[in-house]
Every structure is written in C-alpha cells, then in structure tokens.
Amino acid sequence: AMKDYIERRKSVHQKAREMMARGNLQGALKILENYLIDNADDADAWYVVGEVLSKMGRQEEGFRAIARARDLSKKA
Fold this sequence. Notes:
By secondary structure, the protein is mostly helical. The chain is built from five helices and no strands. The longest helix has 17 residues, at 59-75. It starts with a helix and ends with a helix.
C-alpha cells in the first residue's frame, strides 16, 4: 500500500526520468506529451522532453524543447 501511495505522489517529471533510466524513452516521451497538453507552460517538463529527445538521437527537437523550457523559466 505504501509503495502505491509513493508511486501516485510522484510528479510526471520523476516518472519520466525513472522511465528514461530504465531505457523506456518512448514511454517517457509519451507521458510528458500527454501531460503537456494541459500544462504547456511547465518549463521543467519541457526540459525533460528535451533530455528524452536528445537521448533518442533527435537532437534538434531536443534543443528546441530545452530552448522552450528556458524561455518559459524566464517568464516565471
């Protein structure tokens, strides 16, 4: 029960990073994309998207996601 509670309390960012660590890049990207539909101004999520895309070999897209994160964090 405690393990389930802890799992439910994790942020999308934490879940995505754990998935990346296990090599599930597609899964990490999917949960972040779904999250960003309703939370498009979350700079931290965009940064993690950039990390995932870069690890997938999609450096240009990753760079754009990280640049978006940087722009959003300046507005905050």
